[in-house]
Amino acid sequence: MTSPEPDGIDTIEIRDSMIRLGQLLKLSSLADDGVEATELIKNGLVKVNGDIEDRRGRQLTTGDVVTVNGQSVRVIAAG
User: How many C-beta atoms lie closer than 10 Å to residue 12's C-beta?
Assistant: First the structure.
């Protein structure tokens, strides 16, 4: 994870063109493990670009913003 951008949202760099939601939650420390990621998603506590997301396998790409319990991260390309 890198430092927050001017809008206060943290960023997470990905090397590939996409990352799955469950992976991002763990990588960004929004969830401790896959079980917690699944529970957060199942309970409607995860938003992608402002909309509640219920698919753990949702593919995220550069620019997507994921929010859990008031904490947000934006996906950016590594480089």
Answer: 20
